[in-house]
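Could someone model MTE with this protein?
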Amino acid sequence: MSQQRNVPPGQFVTEKFPVLTYGATPAFDPKTWTFRLFGLVAAPVTLTYPQFQALPRIQLTADFHCVTQWSRLGNRWEGVSINEIVKLAPPLPEARHALIHCDGGYTTNLPLATLLDDDVLLATKHDDANLAPEHGWPLRLIVPKRYAWKSAKWVRGIEYLAHDRPGFWEMHGYHNDADPWREERFSE
Ligand SMILES: Nc1nc2c(c(=O)[nH]1)N[C@H]1C(S)=C(S)[C@@H](COP(=O)(O)O)O[C@H]1N2
Ligand SMILES: [Mo]
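Reply:
Sure, complex below.
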């Protein structure tokens, strides 16, 4: 058995783009959609859909590793850099963690330092097309250095926290840190 150089241990490459969602794909209404930055900030910010669309955009290519062992390599993502987003409402010094909030109630947690990595973005496009509804349209987080359950679909807000608070899968047995190169799949 040969292992591909650029795939983390225990992963298999797929050309497909499987859909992994707990629950149903939420409906999107651009008239009522908002994006919120809240928690440990001097002043919370709420963006409307047109305001979000006006933010500067970046593109980057990254691999995507699902904990169920498929990896999709070389995904071209387009969207807004997380560093562009946090400029709008910088976290207070005591903020150390973030909880990502999604339509439908899904959440996932990240240390602030991991969230603010240079390769993290809020994506609206994948491989040059708008995200399909089931892949997170109109907005999903992409955290290339973590298993894909941290790449939350249908993102509606980021909450800054002083103390870590587990998200949906992190409360249901998945590893808190989720580094695929360390095979951090499940907690004990
Ligand atoms: N809101 C939300 N985001 C989510 C999920 C989910 O169920 N709800 N599933 C996660 C999991 S387990 C994976 S592997 C990826 C899958 O992304 P995809 O369906 O676009 O392939 O989305 C992640 N983001
Ligand atoms: Mo997953």
